[in-house]
């Protein structure tokens, strides 16, 4: 922070400043309020009884013993609660007209379809009593065959997850541009690869929780929930329960991370609401970690078959992508759309003429999948960066050179790319060459050659992760075009109080992104005030009734832009009042440092705080003007934003054990105009850590019968701080023409560029030994087995 900013001078240019986050003091000193902290008098604690089997018919449920436990107030099954719901849990992204959507009830009535499927709930005066009661609910099951593997699920005679459908095929979604078949037929080189996106489990520090409180006079309900999407929760709860949305207030208190897991409306939220209505008492549920692994959505889960047609000098002519996408047992809010979202960025930063993409959604007897940080775009980046390395190996060319030959040239206005969409702006070669310079690429290749020639048991590898992502989700008309059942606008209100302080109401709902700080910086610059004089209100549908919430790298590009525009309207009104007070023409006024004055004169002036006071008194305003400085703005973006970057990972791989150590990690990102560099770097740190986790450690595994074998954090490997390297970060700025601030977004970029960079680096380290493929996670055992297999030995 500069000296000027330390003194709090309002004239400081706050956008672009490393201002400390306003949120952190409460979060770091234990003064935050989490959903689990909320326990109104009379609260009943809810525990869900879950299926231990992946697929079975429910023969009978005996609740007698559970109901007799001291403190237990109710034990309910689907037969008791089904009439509380107008419909099942909805899917908000039915990607095709003929998509198959199974009935998904908050409690399973006749059949369970994955381990963790809820079959009953126990309500008690304490959490321990509720757990004791749940342990005594006796469920008789008739086990059915389960299907786990996507390819097996589509085979003739495979067990069917939902018998009434008669198939495990959910949908097929195609996209094609150009003449792919001719391009492949005429190509000098064709390279194909199959890449697996293993299931991963979002692991936010705060698990999911919900507390539903009925109004004592019957006016409605307040639902406290650990969510990224309070407005979605309100709207969907209203639609499914029949309670008017004006009678449902949803509050997201402090939320300890989401990563997509909290971009949903879950069975427990529906159950808490209808049971609070039924019993007229507060109902509370907090998930355990094992529940999180079983019943909160998983991420990823794809089989990617990718092919490229190219010339001998490495220029790509066409790309063909065929995906199998694991839906799990049901469709949650966005489940089918994740693979479809990736279709538009599977071509990456590369310029070629012909492209085809087909995604097939497949049902399995596993936990449903849904969005996970970088949803769709991370999977796409992994596929296109793996095939780029495979192409380079096939041609005997350097991996960097093949990429450089295929990058789009610099563009500052929208450019149509092979998938048919328009990227907003890009300078990909500058970005990639800067990353190569920072990491010392030529020196690393020389070191690699020396180690290989000396048969060093520890070899180094260099891996690239070039990427772009579709941020700023999303233009409402585009959303409708891909059948996403939500507008992509965002709402903001900015108002100056009588004292001259500023309140900002935003429809975005943060869970670690730093919105209170960044939005304060935007408004401070716009209105000439200090960020400390700006209060940002969010996460409460009573305070902010309109909003589309936080996901898809949209908060700044859409929500922040709405704040910027609303503040501009306030400034315009203040300018008119100031001109009236100064008896001057608006066109003659200038506004600097929070003060209006006639340009080029030393005459009288008026501060924006004085204007706010005059607007409140309202006794000396321009004719016909309404009192107060307040304005609303709703911004619906005309296009996505397209952040991009080059991540370079340098690994050391012990060829005798397969152990991988990340020696260096360099990332050059371009997220357009940067509001707060510290926040940008923090988002990159977290995202890169998650990508490294997927690349080297994390895997939601199941046995052949569909039973989870990574059911908690003792068996599911999340990287610790000691597993991560120092991240060397740099930002370039290519402003987006999509919004007046020129911003693009950064929240998911780290998770998109990192996993391909790491895996490419692992394979590159041992490619001279004949290893051309390792699936994620590239554990020491997996790498050692690949080395052993390439040498012709038996592992």
TrEMBL record:
SUPFAM superfamilies, from UniProt? CO dehydrogenase molybdoprotein N-domain-like, Molybdenum cofactor-binding domain
Which parts pass through the membrane? none
Which segments of the protein form a coiled coil according to its record? none
- Is Oxidoreductase set as a keyword in this record? yes
Provide this UniProt record's keywords sorted from A to Z.
Answer: Molybdenum, Oxidoreductase
Pfam families assigned: Ald_Xan_dh_C, MoCoBD_1, MoCoBD_2
Occurrences of domain Aldehyde oxidase/xanthine dehydrogenase a/b hammerhead (ranges): 29-145
This chain's protein is named Molybdopterin cofactor-binding domain-containing protein
């Amino acid at each position: 922070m500069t000296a000027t900013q330390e003194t709090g001078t309002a004239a400081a240019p706050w956008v672009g400043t490393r201002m400390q986050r306003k949120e952190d003091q409460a979060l770091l000193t234990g003064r935050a309020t989490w959903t689990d902290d909320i326990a109104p008098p009379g609260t009943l604690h809810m525990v869900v009884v879950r299926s231990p089997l992946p697929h079975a018919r429910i023969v009978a449920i005996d609740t007698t013993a559970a109901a007799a436990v001291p403190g237990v107030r109710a034990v309910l099954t689907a037969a008791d609660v089904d009439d509380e719901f107008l419909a099942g849990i909805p899917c908000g992204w039915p990607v095709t007209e003929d998509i198959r959507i199974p009935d998904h009830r908050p409690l399973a009535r006749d059949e369970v379809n994955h381990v963790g499927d809820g079959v009953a709930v126990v309500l008690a005066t304490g959490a321990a009593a509720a757990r004791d009661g749940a342990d005594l609910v006796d469920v008789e099951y008739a086990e059915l065959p389960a299907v786990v593997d996507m390819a097996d699920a589509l085979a003739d005679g495979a067990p069917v997850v939902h018998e009434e459908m008669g198939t495990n095929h959910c949908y097929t979604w195609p996209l094609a541009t150009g003449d792919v078949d001719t391009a492949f037929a005429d190509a000098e080189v064709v390279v194909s690869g199959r890449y697996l996106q293993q299931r991963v489990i979002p692991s936010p520090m705060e698990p999911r929780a919900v507390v539903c409180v009925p109004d004592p006079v019957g006016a409605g309900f307040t639902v406290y929930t650990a969510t990224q999407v309070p407005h979605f929760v309100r709207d969907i709860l209203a639609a499914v329960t029949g309670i008017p949305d004006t009678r449902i207030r949803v509050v997201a208190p402090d939320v300890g991370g989401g990563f997509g897991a909290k971009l949903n409306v879950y069975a427990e939220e529906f159950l808490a609401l209808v049971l609070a209505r039924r019993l007229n008492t507060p109902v509370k549920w907090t998930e355990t970690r094992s529940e999180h692994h079983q019943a909160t959505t998983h991420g990823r889960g794809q089989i990617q078959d990718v092919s490229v047609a190219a010339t001998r000098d490495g220029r790509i002519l066409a790309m063909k992508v065929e995906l199998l996408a694991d839906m799990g047992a049901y469709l949650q809010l966005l489940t089918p759309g994740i693979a479809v979202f990736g279709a538009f960025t599977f071509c990456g930063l590369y310029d070629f003429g012909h492209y085809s993409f087909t995604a097939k959604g497949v049902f399995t007897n596993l936990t449903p999948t849904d969005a996970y940080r970088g949803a769709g775009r991370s999977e796409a980046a992994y596929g296109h960066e793996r095939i780029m390395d495979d192409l380079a190996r096939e041609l005997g060319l350097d991996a960097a050179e093949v990429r450089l030959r295929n990058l789009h040239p610099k563009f500052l206005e929208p450019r149509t790319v092979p998938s048919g969409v328009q990227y907003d702006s890009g300078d990909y070669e500058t970005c990639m060459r800067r990353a190569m310079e920072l990491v010392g690429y030529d020196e690393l290749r020389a070191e690699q050659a020396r180690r290989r020639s000396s048969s060093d048991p520890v070899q180094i590898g260099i891996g690239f992760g070039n990427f772009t992502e579709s941020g700023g989700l999303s233009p409402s008309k585009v959303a409708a075009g891909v059948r996403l059942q939500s507008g992509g606008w965002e709402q903001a209100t900015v108002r100056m109080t009588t004292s001259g302080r500023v309140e900002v109401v935003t429809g975005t709902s943060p869970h670690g992104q730093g919105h209170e700080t960044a939005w304060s910086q935007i408004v401070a610059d716009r209105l000439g005030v200090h960020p400390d004089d700006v209060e940002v209100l969010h996460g409460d549908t009573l305070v902010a009734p309109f909003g589309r919430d936080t996901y898809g790298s949209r908060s700044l590009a859409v929500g922040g832009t709405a704040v910027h525009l609303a503040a501009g309207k306030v400034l315009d009104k203040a300018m008119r009042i100031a001109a009236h007070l100064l008896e001057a023409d608006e066109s003659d006024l200038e506004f600097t440092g929070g003060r209006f004055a006639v340009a080029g004169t030393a005459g009288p002036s008026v501060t924006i705080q004085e204007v706010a006071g005059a607007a409140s008194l309202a006794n000396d305003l321009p004719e016909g003007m309404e009192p107060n400085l307040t304005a609303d703005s709703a911004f619906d973006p005309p296009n996505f934003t397209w952040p991009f970057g080059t991540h370079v990972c340098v690994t050391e791989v012990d060829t005798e054990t397969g152990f991988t150590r990340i020696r260096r990690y360099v990332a050059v990102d371009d997220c357009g105009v940067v509001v707060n560099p510290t926040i940008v770097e923090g988002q990159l740190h977290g995202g890169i850590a998650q990508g490294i986790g997927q690349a080297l450690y994390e895997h939601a595994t199941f046995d052949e019968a569909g039973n989870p074998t990574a059911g908690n954090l003792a068996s599911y490997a999340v990287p610790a701080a000691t597993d991560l390297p120092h991240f060397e970060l740099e930002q370039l700025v290519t402003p987006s023409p999509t919004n007046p601030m020129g911003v693009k977004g950064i929240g998911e970029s780290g998770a998109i560029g990192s996993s391909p960079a790491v895996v490419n680096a692992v394979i590159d380290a041992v490619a001279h030994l004949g290893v051309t493929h390792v699936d994620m996670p590239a554990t020491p055992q997996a790498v050692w087995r690949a080395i052993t297999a390439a040498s012709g030995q038996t592992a």
